[in-house]
Amino acid sequence: MSRTLKKISYHIDTIKKKLVRNIYSLVYSSRLKNKDFAIISNNCWGGGIYQITKSPYNTPFIGLFINAPCYIKFLRNPDYYLNQNIEFVKKSKYLHLNTLQKYPIGCLSDIEIHFLHYKSEDEATKKWTRRCQRLPSKDSWYIKFDDRDNFEETHIHEFHQLSYKNKISFTKKKYEYELNLKLKNKDDLILFHTTYDLMDIIHWINTTEVKKPNGFLLVIQTLLKYYPKY
């Protein structure tokens, strides 16, 4: 293929992806009735939901990831950790991450936050602090967990024993919990674009009920695959 044809093909593909994302954004945002929600997620999953619904980031869990042991610790005592000042470290206690680490690592007491999509400690601190101030009450938290990042099977049991009323987990294999969903592909990164067709996420935010997509939403998802963005 000539360079000109490659450029044309690239531009057509870019336009197509943008169109599909805009259609999804229109469908998702028009159905969103609950505007006072906060996604608490151990990775970038929540960012995709805020982007597609064009909602303000009223959660600090944007553009970062937290290893499973630290995340469970946080969920057990969020008030304590959210009131801690961030202290940055040069090396992670998860040693295998140090070879790839090119982003700020912040600590809230004994848990690590990996600010994957932040360029500096200053940016991470300012955005974390500002978004913590936007957090609504815990009744409006929608909490997601998965089996990535130093996950052990005990963590899934600990997660589903927590008292939060709005929680969901995505895993490579199915566990006995009703609010645990099995991935279609075990190699999925467990971000919005690989889980949006497992459940009706907007219905969950509106009603706290977990159900599979149906009706018009199912038609859209069948005809148009959502492209990765976040």
Plain-language structure description:
- The strands form 2 sheets. A 4-stranded parallel β-sheet has the order 1-5-6-7, with helices on both faces. The protein has a 3-stranded antiparallel β-sheet with strand order 2-3-4.
- It has a domain at 35-191.
- The mean pLDDT is 92.
- Helices cover 41% and strands 13% of the residues.
- β3 and β4 form a beta hairpin.
- By secondary structure, it is an alpha/beta fold.
- The 3D shape can be described as globular
The strand order across the widest sheet is 1-5-6-7
**How many runs of DSSP E, i.e. beta strands?**
7
Structural class: alpha/beta
H/E element sequence: HEHHHEEEHEHEEHHH
Largest sheet: 4 strands, parallel
> Distance N terminus to C terminus?
30 Å
| Count, helices | 9
Write the layout of secondary structure elements.
Elements: H1 3-31, E1 38-41, H2 45-53, H3 68-76, H4 78-82, E2 87-89, E3 105-108, E4 111-114, H5 121-134, E5 141-146, H6 153-161, E6 167-171, E7 180-182, H7 192-195, H8 201-207, H9 215-223
Parallel strand pairs: 1-5, 5-6, 6-7
Antiparallel strand pairs: 2-3, 3-4
What are the salient characteristics of this protein?
four-stranded parallel sheet; globular; 9 helices; 7 strands; 230 residues; three-stranded antiparallel sheet; alpha/beta; 41% helix; single chain
Describe this structure in a few short sentences:
By secondary structure, this protein is α/β, with parallel strands linked by helices. The chain contains 9 helices and 7 strands.
